[in-house]
Amino acid sequence: MDGFLVQQPFADLIASGKKKWELRTQPVYLPNKPFYILATARPHPSLPTYDQARLGVAVGIAETDGYEGPFTIAQLVLLEHLTSGAGRCLANLR
Length: 94
Hints:
Distance between the termini: 39 Å
Radius of gyration: 14 Å
Number of helices: 3
Number of domains: 1
Shape: globular
Oligomer: single chain
Low-confidence stretches: none
Number of strands: 3
Structural class: alpha+beta
Mean pLDDT: 84
Order of helices and strands: EHEEHH
């Protein structure tokens, strides 16, 4: 089974269904079949003390119904309400 690498806490948020979108700066391959959500060995810099037991492990299985993009910054600002915490990142791009 294929896997999709995501930093914590975002891997857990995707696996729990609380995060529906994953914004990436580079194109990614997502298979048309179930795949593992894999937490990276290091958490996102905003949470350096994230639970070590949740790092470097498969946290769930997901399926995709496709992907969209790339988006312009203006489009991302309009879609901000669909993302978790993207506002701070988008503010830095404006």
